[in-house]
Specification:
Elements: E1 14-19, H1 24-39, E2 43-48, E3 66-69, H2 77-94, E4 98-102, H3 104-113, E5 119-122, H4 134-151, E6 154-157, H5 160-168, E7 174-176, E8 198-202, H6 211-219, E9 226-230, H7 235-247, E10 251-252, H8 258-266, E11 270-273, H9 282-289, E12 293-297, H10 300-306, E13 311-312, H11 315-327, H12 329-343, H13 348-363
Parallel strand pairs: 1-2, 1-4, 2-3, 4-5, 5-6, 6-7, 8-9, 8-11, 9-10, 11-12, 12-13
Length: 371
């Protein structure tokens, strides 16, 4: 069996994936899942919106699925209505056996216009957990996401943390299928550690990645390590973060592709993942695959993957832990041993098996159709 392929346990079906925030981790997730479903003999359509992080050539590296833009280029109400109409029309034409909605806006719009078939809603981090928009925005998201969670046949959570939020919203059924990556189906890339310690952070310089806070943490260890931010972008939302990093003397590479991210992780010593919210972070899994120590913010998904010793609740704690790790080889090795024992549960093949089992269950039980 090829890596990233699972034995087909169900008859060929038509699968419709819907993703509004089609970029970054969601893009990687959907493409991996859709490609595996094609290899297993299913017919797959991916309907998507365009965000600043969406690749210019959508689906160029994925053979088989059909990618259909919905003209979903902003989150204005008129755009949501237009996307909903196009999605309803596409569903009538394609007649999917199962629909998989990815992220909050796709979950709400899809739940509003699709019925009569099994619907999976995967939030990839509930928007209501985000601190960027303030309390009023979070309250609006809670109402919308709670409604979408209850409308779906099942909330397919990518972490136990996400699953617990879905249950709190009153979802009728919640199944947790942890994220997985192909690098963890093998030993992952290897490289000799750099002669001088190197600490990196990565991603868009948007509030979710807390670039201003990351800049302060990284600057405080500049005497012990080389520093870099791998990535950039984020349009207006990323401008302040990029400026903070540049002011702190931390080099930004600008947006890079997945292969370059893996290369940068492989030649680092420590990866700082200082996020405000997450679903289950793929970049943490990639660092674990590269056998590089991760230090992360103390939020549910990070703690779930790494355990309590490698998450910090404040900048001061993160600075102290990073300095100790850079100066203590035995401490670094103990953290790596812990990561090695944890990372086997996050392989791509294991994730695909989980989703295949859930799809199988849903399509074999007509009574589970979306409410």
């Amino acid at each position: 069996m090829l890596p990233g392929t699972v034995a087909a346990s169900i008859a060929a079906m038509r699968v419709l994936h819907v993703a509004e925030a089609f970029g970054g981790g969601v893009y990687e997730f959907v493409c991996n899942l859709a490609a595996a479903q094609i290899r297993d003999g299913h017919e797959v359509v991916v309907a998507y919106g365009v965000r600043p992080e969406t690749p210019d050539e959508v689906g160029a590296s994925v053979e088989g699925p059909e990618f259909i833009p919905l003209g979903w280029s902003s989150r204005a109400p008129a755009q949501q209505l237009l996307a909903g109409r196009r999605l309803r029309r596409l569903a009538r034409q394609f007649e999917p056996d199962i629909v998989h909605l990815h992220s909050s806006f796709a979950g709400v719009v899809g739940a509003a216009v699709l019925s009569g078939r099994p619907v999976i809603y995967t939030p990839h981090a509930y928007a209501s957990t985000m601190s960027e928009g303030g309390s009023l925005s979070a309250a609006v998201y809670r109402v919308a996401e709670g409604w979408a969670s209850r409308r779906a046949t099942v909330v397919g959570a990518v972490s136990e943390h996400e699953g617990s939020i879905a249950r709190g919203y009153g979802a009728h059924r919640v199944e947790v299928v942890p994220n997985g990556i192909p690098e963890l189906d093998g030993h992952g890339p290897t490289a000799d550690p750099p002669a001088r310690p190197r600490v990196i952070a990565l991603g868009r310089t948007v509030p979710q990645r807390r670039p201003e806070s990351s800049a302060r943490i990284l600057a405080a260890i500049a005497d012990l390590a080389d520093l870099a931010w791998i990535g950039g972008g984020g349009a207006e939302r990323g401008a302040a973060g990029a400026a903070a990093l540049e002011d702190a003397g931390i080099a930004l590479t600008g947006w890079v592709d997945h292969d370059r991210v893996i290369e940068e992780l492989a030649r680092s010593t420590i990866y700082l993942h200082w996020t405000a919210w997450d679903g289950l972070p793929l970049s943490v899994l990639e660092a674990m695959a590269c056998d590089r120590v991760v230090v992360a913010s103390d939020i549910g998904p990070n703690r779930e993957v790494l355990g309590p010793e490698q998450v910090c609740s404040s900048e001061e704690e993160a600075i102290d832990l990073l300095r100790r790790l850079l100066l203590d080889d035995k401490l670094r090795e103990s953290f790596l041993a812990s990561q090695r024992s944890r990372r086997t549960r996050y392989s791509l093949s294991r994730m695909l098996e989980g989703w295949a089992a859930l799809y199988d269950d849903l399509v074999s039980r007509p009574r589970a159709a979306s409410r």
